[in-house]
Amino acid sequence: METPAPTVRLLMRLGYWSVWHGLHAEAAVLFSGAQAARPASEVPVLGMAVLAMVMNQPAHAVELLRQSAAAAPNELIDVHHGCALRLMGEEVAGMEILQRVATTGQTPDARQMAANLAALGAAQLHPQLAKIL
């Protein structure tokens, strides 16, 4: 049975909402559901990579993104990869990817995202997680 596209989009939206609200386990389940519904899509991988970065696990994000890029190159994957590398402290490698996509990318959204991330200083890039007192 084919999962309808609106259902997959809803899973992704709820996954991102869960990430931003600190519901990390729930986000992982939602992104996994989207991955099961669309195994060839890079979109669930991007969600899992964002989750890994927010959870201060950029090395995990890099691994997910490298695997996905090897299977199907994609500029949005490259941008997230550049961001994750910078979060790992690999500033030069991350900036090279971001600047390449920002200047020569074919996808307008990827170009804009890469330019925005490249413009951020290393300290600005790190997720600022709210602390509850």
Plain-language structure description:
There is one protein chain. By secondary structure, this protein is mostly helical. The protein has a single domain, classed as Serine Threonine Protein Phosphatase 5, Tetratricopeptide repeat (Alpha Horseshoe), CATH 1.25.40. The longest helix is centred in the first third of the chain and has 16 residues. The mean pLDDT is 93.
Mean pLDDT: 93
Characterize the overall form.
globular
Secondary-structure element sequence?
HHHHHHHH
| Strand coverage percent | under 5%
CATH 2nd-level architecture: Alpha Horseshoe
Count of strand segments? 0
Structural class: mainly alpha
Here the CATH topology equals Serine Threonine Protein Phosphatase 5, Tetratricopeptide repeat
CATH homology group: Tetratricopeptide repeat domain
Number of domains: 1
Rounded to the nearest angstrom, the radius of gyration is 15 Å
Helicity, in percent?
over 70%
Q: Between the first and last Cα atoms, what is the distance in angstroms?
A: 47 Å
Major β-sheet profile:
none
Low-confidence stretches: none
**Can you tell me the CATH class?**
Mainly Alpha
Number of helices: 8
